[in-house]
User: Fold this.
Amino acid sequence: MVKTKVTLSIEKPVVDNAKLALLKKGRTMSDYIEKSLRSLSSSDILEDLCKEMELDCEYISGEEIERQRPDFKGKVLAEKEVREMRNGRRTRIS
Assistant:
């Protein structure tokens, strides 16, 4: 696939913070922006499809899922707590 250069005007502190956060995740700014733009077009397609089928849908991007994911690094959870989290997620999805 052919790549195209894009020029953006974004405040320097925003870019610096984004680069640092992405570096920690092993990602590039280009990769992140491309993935975000792809999810925008995907969400538009899904939204149109839901309207056409008269469904009440909500598209959640991968980035949104990552932001909502709790941080359990270094924590040991009991089986009961994990089951409760899964049941809560299942309730939100359905």
